[in-house]
Design brief:
The chain is mostly helical. The chain has a two-stranded antiparallel ribbon. Helix 3 packs across helix 4, helix 3 crosses helix 10 and helix 5 runs antiparallel to helix 6. It is globular.
Length: 378
């Protein structure tokens, strides 16, 4: 008797098909992915961003109160008053800058967790927050270092160009103004080009476990033939959430002004007007914070999808993902990470195989049948 293999169900579908996909799929699935694991994606992002916002706001307010309170003991218009005022402004600004940078580190954590979770969602897995952090932890300090490197590079470029514009302005004011405008206009396309070329650096660092320099090289290579789709994703998502933020903030600003006018038409201070103003501002800040959280998740998701699509086209990642999913759903354990199996290889389709044309037993005009592509040197 012939023994037939046991029936096994079809492999689970991930958030994207396991083959190269187009610009519309990347853009659409970047928003849809929020529904796959909202607790890890949106819940964690909202918790961390809210915590960072509250800590920074309270700390900066405390520094401002502590530094500006001394002005009450001084006479306005004196040299000592002006000195303390300048020092208070400087200390408050420095505190806001430092605390903002620390809050940026928490934002990096959110992006890293999103990258890890979405990479699992591609192969139809729903990891816990602990599982996502396990993949991020070895490279988290590198991600922080990369973010600081980007901030330092931006500060150096702005300081250099700003210094040149100021020097030119000291020689001839109109020349300095024109130079500043030209520098500002020139930085826009430069920023967009570099942001596109470096868009995949965090994904490469997290999913491949490489260092900063290697991740930059990987992003540069993977976006070489996918520059315009990557650029389009960045611009569309940024514009979409920018518009949503304005849709929230502008009506609330008009509403707060209208309520103040209705409650206190003479401009006199009224506790009810102050309470209404504070409530509206809090509601607006909550809405903007939610939009920012969703924007971080969607943009990080789009980066992973661009990364996966680029590697499918350049390195045959789709075959590694197929093999991983089939083996996992067949019950295999301790499988290697499919994102690291063929990282950096050169993918070339295998030549057509089969009986040569005209061979005995081959019908006249029959063509050789193609085999699935395989990695070069595999």
């Amino acid at each position: 008797m012939t023994a037939y293999p046991a029936w096994t169900p079809a492999s689970r579908a991930g958030i994207v098909p396991l083959h190269p996909y187009g610009f519309g799929t990347i853009l659409g699935r970047s928003f849809v992915a929020l529904r796959h694991n909202p607790r890890v994606l949106l819940g964690f992002a909202l918790l961390v961003q809210t915590l960072a916002y509250v800590i920074v706001s309270v700390a900066v307010a405390a520094v401002a109160i502590a530094t500006f309170a001394r002005l009450d003991t001084l006479v306005e218009g004196t040299e000592e008053f002006d000195t303390v005022l300048v020092g208070s402004i400087a200390l408050t600004g420095l505190a806001a800058l430092v605390l903002g940078a620390l809050a940026g580190g928490l934002s990096v954590l959110v992006q890293a967790v999103v990258v890890s979770e979405v990479a699992s969602a591609v192969v139809a897995e729903k990891p816990t927050l602990r599982d996502a952090w396990r993949r991020v932890r070895p490279v988290f300090l590198r991600l922080i270092g990369y973010s600081l490197l980007i901030l330092l590079a931006m500060a150096v470029v702005l300081a250099l160009l700003g210094g040149i514009a100021v020097l030119l302005g000291l020689v001839l004011l109109p020349l300095g103004i024109v130079a500043g405008i030209l520098f500002a206009l020139g930085l826009i396309p430069l920023y967009l080009w570099l942001a596109t070329k470096l868009f995949l650096v965090p994904s490469a660092m997290i999913l491949e476990g490489v260092g900063i320099r290697r991740a930059i090289a990987r992003s540069w290579v993977l976006t070489r033939r996918r520059f315009w789709p990557t650029f389009g994703v960045i611009v569309i998502i940024s514009l979409a959430f920018g518009v949503v933020g304005q849709v929230i903030s502008i009506p609330l600003g008009l509403l707060s002004g209208g309520i103040s006018t209705i409650v206190a038409p003479t401009g006199a201070s009224d506790p009810s007007a102050l309470i209404a103003f504070v409530v509206i501002q809090l509601v607006g800040q909550v809405g903007i914070l939610l939009v920012q959280c969703i924007a971080v998740v969607v943009q990080s998701t789009s980066a992973v999808l661009v990364y996966v699509d680029a590697r499918m086209r350049v390195e045959g990642l789709d075959h590694d993902l197929f093999a991983y999913v089939d083996a996992r759903d067949s019950g295999a354990q301790d499988l290697p990470d499919p994102y690291r199996v063929g990282a950096g290889r050169t993918w070339s389709p295998a030549p057509a195989w089969g009986p040569p044309a005209g061979a005995p037993g081959t019908p006249s005009g029959a063509a050789a049948w193609p085999a699935p592509p395989s990695p070069a040197g595999a």
